Each structure stands twice: as C-alpha cells, then as structure tokens.
Amino acid sequence: MAIQLPPGIILIFRRLPRLLLPPVSIYILLRVCDAVLDVSVPYWLQFLAYILSIPLTPMVSVIYTDYVDSREAAARGAVLPPRATSKWPAGLDILLRMVANSKTGYMGEVLEQEAEINGNTFNAKVLLENRIFTFEPEYIKAILATKFNSYGKGPMFWDQVNSLLGTGVFNSDGDTWKFHRTMTRPFFSRDRISHFDIFEKHAEDAISQFKQRLREGYPVDFQDMVSRFTLDSATEFLFGKDVCSLGAGLPYPPSSPLAKSAFTENHPANIFAQAFAEAQVAASSRGRYGSNWRFFEFWSDTVKKRMDICYQFIDPILKDALQKKRDLKESGVNDDAKEGETLLDHLVNYTEDPTVIRDETLNIMIAGRDTTAGLLTFVIYMLSQHPVVLTRLREEVLTKVGGSRRPTYDDMREMKYMRAVLNETLRLYPPVPFNVRTSTEATVWPSVNGGKPLYIPANTRVPYSVFLMHRRKDLWGPDALEFDPDRFIDQRLHKFLTPNPFIFVPFNAGPRICLGQQFAYNEASYFLVRLLQAFSSVSLATDVQKPPPAEWAKGPGRQAVEKIVIKGHLTMYAADGVWVRMDEANQNETVI
Ligand code: HEM
Ligand SMILES: *[C@@H]1O[C@H](CO)[C@@H](O)[C@H](O)[C@H]1NC(C)=O
Ligand SMILES: *[C@@H]1O[C@H](CO)[C@@H](O)[C@H](O)[C@H]1NC(C)=O
Known about the structure:
mainly alpha; 2 domains; 55% helix; 8% strand; binds protoporphyrin IX containing FE; binds 2-acetamido-2-deoxy-beta-D-glucopyranose; oxidoreductase activity, acting on paired donors, with incorporation or reduction of molecular oxygen; monooxygenase activity; heme binding
C-alpha cells in the first residue's frame, strides 16, 4: 500500500518550486550586488525584498501575461474578454460571492449580475486564474464543435473528479477519451427493446410503493423516488444486477415520527446513495477553488472518504457479475439471451481489470443516473405548477397508449407533446446547468453581433452555462422565462430554435455529445407514461415542502416564482426534495 500524503501537503510540495523561486532569485541578486558590484544593501531592505518577493512575483507575472495576451489578441484582430469587476485582490470578493450564492442564493445569480455589466462572456479571474465564463451559443458551439480539438475537460477537471470517478469516458481527454468512447459507444447504439423490461420492472415497483404511501396519507419525495428508480434501472443495465435501492422503501416526511428508522438508516443502498451524493457535492465544490482545492481539504480527501463507502457496496456486486461471466465462459455455456446485454458484458471483452471496469461503470452511472432523475423531478415540479400541461400530456398518453398497456418504442416516437414537455423542462432546468472546458491552445472565438472576435489564450478555463443561455430572452423571445412546451411545437420553434440550434444543448453537442440521450428520453417517457396512467393530478405538498428563502420572492426572473430550492453539484437537483401528492386515476376511465 502506498502512503497517501494529505492533499494540502501534496499541494505545498507542488507549489514549492514556484514559491521558492522569488526569494532564491533575490538571494542570488543580493550576492551579486555584494560580490561583483560591491554594493551592500541594508538589512531592512534585504528583509523587505525577501518578504515582498513572494506576493509580488505572481502579480507581476499576471500583469506580464495579460500584456502578452492582449498583444497576441491584437495580432489576430481580436480582443480579450471583458474582466468581471473585482474590488478585492485576486478576485477574492467574486469567490466569496459565489460561495455565499451557492449556500442561499439562486442558481447562477452572481454570473447573471456580472453579465448585466459585462455581457454574456467575461473573465472572472479568481485566485489569479483566468476563468472565461460564457453563455453565448456561438462560443459554446466553438468550444464543443467547431474547435473541439482545441479544448479538453482539462487536467484540472480530471484532478478535481479523479477521486470520484477514476478514469473513464466522462472525465478523460485525448486518446484516453477516444479509447473509452470507442469502448462504450456500441453499448448505446444497439437497439435494445428489452431495455423496457428493466424500466417496467422498476417503474412498477416505484409506482406501487408511491400509491401505497399516498393511501397511508403521506406525501412522497418524488426526487428521492425517481433517484431510486434511475439507480436501480442503471445498475441493472450496467452490471446485470440492480442495487435494490427501491427495496429500502420510500422515506417519510422529515416531520413524521416514521422518518427515522433503523431499517432505512442502515440499509446498504441508502448508505451508498447518500455517500455517492455527498461525494458529488464535495467534488463539484472543488471547481470554485481551481487548482487550489487541496488547501480547502488540507488533511484529507473528502471525496475519497465517501467513495470508499460506495466501493464497499459496489465492489461485491461487480465481483459477482465478473465471476458469473467467467463461470459462463469456462463452462462453455453461451447465455445467448443475455449475451451483450449489460455494459459489463461489453467491457469484459476489452479488459479484465476490475478497476477499469469499476471506473467506467461509475462514469456512466454518474452521467446517466442523476441527470435522468433530475429531468423527471423537474417535470413533475412543472406539472404541479401547470395543471393544463398535465391534462394535455395525460390526454396524449391515454390516446396513444391507453390506460394500462405498456408503451412501446413506436408509442414513444409518436408522443410529440411528451417530447415537448421533456424539452421544455430540459430548457429551464437542464440537468447539467454548468460545465467547463480548458483550452489546449490559443484560439479565437468568432465575432458575435458585430463585436470583435475574442482571443482565448492556451490553458485557460472556460466555464459555460447552458442554464443561463436557455433562459435568455434575446434568444428565446420575451416569454423565455415561462414554462410553455408549445414553444417546441408552434411557430416559435421556427423563429428561434430551428435557425439557431446551439441555443438548446442540454445534452451538449459535437463529438462528445451525450451517449445516453435516446436512452434518457426513453427512460423518462416510459416512467411518465406509467405514472400518468396511474394518476390524474399532482400537487406540491406545501405542508412538508420547505419553501425557498423569503427574499427570493423579490428576486428577478424565475427566482420569484420558484417553490423549491434548486441546487447544482455536477447535476441540478432540488435541495430539500420535491414532496408531492397525486390523485389516483379513475380505474374506469375509458381510453379515448
Ligand atoms: C436527461 C438526461 C441526461 C442529460 C441531460 C445528459 C447530459 C449530458 C451532458 C451535458 C453531457 C456532456 C458532459 C461533458 O462532456 O462535459 C453528457 C455526457 C455523457 N452522458 Fe449524458 N445526459 C443524460 C442522460 C444520460 C444517460 C441516461 C446516460 C447513460 C445511460 C448518459 C451517458 C453519458 C455519457 C457516457 C457521457 C460522456 C460522453 C463523452 O464524454 O464522450 N447520459 N450527458
Ligand atoms: C465479445 O466478443 C465476442 C467475440 O469476439 C463477441 O462474439 C461478442 O458479441 C462480444 N460481446 C460484446 C458484448 O461485445
Ligand atoms: C427535443 O429536442 C431534441 C434535441 O435535444 C430534438 O431532437 C427534438 O426534435 C425535440 N423535440 C421536440 C418535440 O421538441
């Protein structure tokens, strides 16, 4: 076992050369003065020079780099992006505002305030590191598609999420990424009708527990329920064996005496799910500190601590699945029906290394599980606020599929309104609201609205937000902040989205577009069809749901109408869940 140094110590060792260079240079300079020029510098001045050299050197280096960058920009007929206003040195006030915002504010508030001053692209330099935020479709297109080869997730992203994910398709770059993408892609492109069997099994489980709980008189945290549904579905697809998180039961409202029980608290699936969620929160909060995150987890890696809990749960499941695979191979029995069904079956064709397989499956689980649960959560939240949309969606379900039958692949394709509801939810509540790339070489972003092209230096972090882009009135029309699925069907579609497809990229775009897009639409549609066959209305359980802070009511945009607190780690979620009640459908309801 290798000895693990605390993260803070590792960072100090890494920074030491850069830290020591200035005082060492001062020392040499003073010696030269003394020996060659015979000038003796007074002690107090020597002392001052040593002390000041440490903070001054990075500042001078930043000023110098800025100078070089603006010259490079000018040489290409471009300019540098505007600098976000910072009153304190090293952008510390911006950092503090962002930290405060992540605690009680509305998502993206600080960035939106900056955008009002600087436009939709600006450099929020924090701790002396450039960070060029953008929510401009033309630039997002450059990052993801037209200049794909000049951007990567970057060594910093990898460093930030390595203790969460190891290395896999989701967090690697370059040839490593190509290898992982090639390895996982065939798994998704196959037409897997049997997928629906897995959806059916877990949807049935979830919905019947949901019904039962409502009959007992309690509301249900819809977010928790669909997270269990997507976790069980994902693990069954990936490993061929689900983690039975629905088997732990649905939680009761926190105010209920039944909320705390030894059974639920000690249930391995709950322990796993909670540790996994905390690991994601911890990993994503590192993003704020850039390469300095180790200072904030000085003595121990908070993500790894939680992932160790997750591994205790996942490793035996993986080991089992691998063993089964080996036994089958040795006995020569070809399990035709199952061959190639799970990701695991697929991966063992490429490698037997359990760590590679574990990392890859976790990469895909993280990409697919919380995102789809988030989509379903925000759909139900929106349906609870827009009963007219629910009625129309339900009508479509009953017309196309009827009141009890399982939906087929063809049904899904014909449910246009379902797609529009999903898209409209993905627009206002994209499960991946913020993302980041790092430039691997200097590039120029094209001119937008007659402005000058922008120069992006090499090794620069460029965080981009589809969340903020999806809500821009200049891109979507004056009603951009309203939830209205018809905008994906009526003339607004041709007016805004068709001519400018990069204004809507919930699944990203370009060579790294989400591998599971179709899978996600199917999974979400399947669940919603089954749900709306069983229930006819939905309302937020305001007696249980914790409302947002009172000052939100005075906020701009959707902040004022929000009934739940939205947060984001790698993905978007509702901070205190989404507690709902639903009315059971009339069983005699005839199919229209
Ligand atoms: C509503 C649901 C989903 C949304 C909004 C979503 C969104 C995204 C986004 C934005 C990315 C790009 C991440 C990046 O490169 O920075 C991505 C990548 C990915 N997604 Fe999804 N996703 C969803 C569901 C799924 C599902 C269900 C799966 C698999 C079962 C999946 C598998 C993947 C994989 C493997 C990648 C990495 C692709 C690569 O880097 O080459 N996603 N997804
Ligand atoms: C694994 O490889 C074997 C032989 O090359 C092939 O028959 C099988 O279909 C592959 N399985 C998967 C899941 O790709
Ligand atoms: C929903 O968005 C996807 C792109 O993500 C698009 O292909 C599809 O046509 C849209 N469907 C509807 C009904 O808006």
